[in-house]
Amino acid sequence: MINRWFSIKKGLALPHKIWRIKMVFSSSLFLFLFLPLFLLTYYFADKKYKNTVILVFSIVFYAWGAPNFVYILLGSTVVDFYLVKWMSEQLDGKKKKIILFVSIFINLGLLLYFTYANFFIENVNSSLSSMGLTEVGWTKVALPIGISFYTFQTLTYSIDVYKNVHKPLKRVSDYLLYIIMFPQLIAGPIVRFTHIADQLTERKETAERRFDGFLRFCLGLGKKILIANVMAEAIAGSFSLDAIALLNSTDAWIVIMAYAMQIYFDFSGYSDMAIGLGKMMGFEFPENFNNPYVSKNITEFWRRWHITLGTWMRDYLYIPLGGNRSSNKFRVYFNLWTVFLISGLWHGDSWNFIIWGAFHGFFLVLDKVFLIKILNKSGAFVSTLITFFLILNSWVFFAIDDIDTCLLFFSKLYSFDFGASQFLYENSIFWTFLSLAILFSFFTTLNVGTKIQAFFFDNQSRGRVAYSALFTTGLCLFMISGCYILSGQFNPFIYFRF
Q1: For a surface tag, which of 23, 71, 138, 157 has the fewest beta carbons within 10 Å of its beta carbon?
Q2: Cis check: omega of the bond before 189, within 30 degrees of 0
Q3: Residue 140 reports pLDDT greater than 90
Q4: Is 360 one of the annotated active-site residues of the chain?
């Protein structure tokens, strides 16, 4: 049984070559060539050329992973800049609305075409085939990397300028920099125009910020390489139909727990690296994660998970739909559920993501109706456990594209066949890092981090010791992660496709 399992896993391993050509932050190409070359060029450049350096390297960064799409990205960004500039000069409110509509249409049109054209045609052909009709001929559209994050940021620019929240940028190069700055282009965090507009033209770079940025980058790199990648490699191929058929309930729960840790440390690690890189350049990007697995309800989870997406959805979708201002409670619930259906659609062009969004929307509505009251009465430990249980179930829809395969996996989870694990019980490295992942995921419940920080940094002499220890820790994390990258080939990134 074990040999059969491993033969299936080996046959279904992720396509490493796909990931080798992408310049993700955790690749050897980025760490040992692109980043050192960028930092040397940036730090030695005159202040007036620093933005130009970032822009040039950002174009190279994107073109390396998507050479066929970089022209679309640059072209649409330049067009949008001049559209918004023209809009801001209009005194006629009707003309301003028309120009805003054109800007939104172009940006959303690109997202809808590249993300959902294949999904639409596949469903049309499925319907035609079931009726015995000829299917539509179609060449599949490739998905440009980072298209969703690009779209969110262009929308915030046009909408915020329209609402006079902030004046438009004066130079097209500054707008290009805002949109395609390489630390946050591929996977966020979603940086709103109002948050970064002033930093594009004037920002303060200090040695302390660079130091903090370096530490944050190393922490994110360690989370990605030493936890997320270990989880990913251990369960590679586990969500295929053949592999699921061999699972018992013990295996199924181990797999989904490992996946939960993989996706959290994968995405939050990447966000940490992006925030760290930004700090090294003098930018302050918004936080994107705040220990989401300690949440006591799904509403709290969405205040802690992918924070910039949640707040974007709230401010640009939920509130414009009416938010919770309506006296009709059912209208409020409908608005909330609609937003999370759209959130599911944003994550991918398949039904599993729509179900995933509907799942979270459903429990957010239940929170408003009665669930939070019940969970609050059950105590912190029980409410956290129940919420984490719900989140684990939701990740099944996120991990598996095919609905029938999802249902098979759920049948394994709830078959109550809790026998000995068939494959993971002998993997000591996996269990060590899974234990560390669980510990770090629930670490804040002890409030230890705050107490340690207060002890060391409230005193100058202890502060110097702490900084030395932190720098050494960061350097060790960087070196260990670097060695792992150089010695291995397995380096997937879940959110690269969004």
Answers
A1: 71
A2: yes
A3: no
A4: no
